[in-house]
Amino acid sequence: MKLKANDPCWCGSRDKHKRCHGDRSALARPAVALGNVSAPRSVPDEIARPSYVTTGIVPPPTPQIQDAESLIRLRRACAVAAEILLRTGGQVDVGVTTEELDRVAHDLHVELGAYPSDLGYRGFPKSICTSVNGVVCHGIPDDRPLEDGDIVNIDVTAFVDGMHGDTSATFHVGTPVTALAGLVDTTREATLRGIAAIRPFEPLQRIAEAIEPFAESRGYRVVREYGGHGIGETFHGAPHVSHHVDRHDDVVVVPGMTFTVEPMLCSGRARFHRARDGWTEHADDDRPCAQFEHTVLVTDTAAEILTTTHDGRTAAGTLHDLERAR
Question: What is the tens place of the pLDDT at every residue in 60-103?
Fold first, then answer.
């Protein structure tokens, strides 16, 4: 059920939604202007690159089904990506530029023997994506300093042992704004709800059925144009993972399949436009958007989150977090 402006807020405050987590004045952030982008960073020759970096040819989006050997390699790539996201996110602060975050992430990739999958993918010039406030996705790191109260999504994909591990999280800058905390917390929970709904030999749409009604019950909108994707040896493989309910989607998941779950939620209308840099997607109304992402494996009984560190840490949340939230 869609939450309306005059409905009681979902948080239990007993205030109307429009005066609580749906307060548009509290959600307002300055429009994000494109800043200056520095030259791409170099990666040592001894670190293996995805084929598209040298050939310019992106592999076709084939389904990614893992066997025992490939899963070992994918687990390592996912653990590396989770480590980089945690450590880069720890550098988010007032006055820090997204260019500086890119430098931190890039250096961590090199330190851990990984290639940043974003770098050179279809010409993308940086090692991570950084999407601030009303940027829906694919923001290019630049020299704009982060401001107190901003939110920023950091999207990391690490290429290790011939595999891509992909994860992202949205971080608060400085003192969190209550209205934005509602958006961020809801997006994290929606992501985990989608993952928890996965069952082998059932429709992929179970993910969307868990995400979209939950998001709308809190007054947020799900971006339809972007979704998750198969991942493994191919960065963006099949299937396309919709986070909105689409009755025409007839994909059935099977054990061994690996893909990402990464809903983008908007606090305003889920309409956006591409900036002149050819990548950055801006919300038309400049209202903040948030995103979380995990790479998951379909098991014989459910789904397993792969993008955690070797000791189980992650910036994007775990299914245990979901149990506590409920």
Answer: 999 999 999 999 999 999 999 999 999 999 999 999 999 999 99
Q: pTM of the predicted model, to two decimals?
A: 0.96
Closest of 175, 249, 179, 244 to residue 212, by C-alpha? 244
Order of all β-strands in the sheet with 281-283: 135-137, 281-283, 272-274
Give the total number of structural domains in the chain: 1
CATH code of the domain in which 131 resides: 3.90.230.10
Peptide bond into 141 cis (omega under 30): no
In a 3-state reduction of DSSP, which class is residue 326? coil
Rounded to 5 degrees, φ, ψ at 50 are -65, 150
What pLDDT is stored for residue 224 in this prediction?
97
Residue 4 lies in a domain: no
DSSP assignments along 21-46, one per residue: TT-HHHH----------PPPPP--TT
Q: Establish if 270 belongs to a structural domain.
A: yes
What's the rounded Cα separation, in Å, for the pair 203 and 209?
Answer: 10
CA distance 273 to 276: 10
Task: For residue 67, give its domain range.
Answer: 59-325
Q: How many CA atoms lie within 13 A of 10 on its CB side?
A: 20
**Residue 188 is assigned to a structural domain of this protein:** yes
> Residue 321 is encoded by which pair of tokens?
């977090």
In a domain, 16, yes or no: no
Structure tokens at 225: 């144009």
Among 253, 227, 229, residue whose Cα is nearest residue 242: 227
Q: How far apart are CA 62 and CA 233, in angstroms?
A: 10
Give the closest residue to 37 by CA, choosing from 103, 114, 136, 92. 103
Which token pair is 192?
């985990």
Q: What is the average per-residue pLDDT within 257-263?
A: 98
Q: Look at residue 29 in the predicted model and tell me its pLDDT.
A: 87
Give DSSP secondary structure letters for 242-268: -SS--TT---B--TTBEEEE--EEESS
Kindly compute the dihedral angle of the four CA atoms of residues 43, 44, 49, 53, in this order, to the nearest 10 degrees. 50
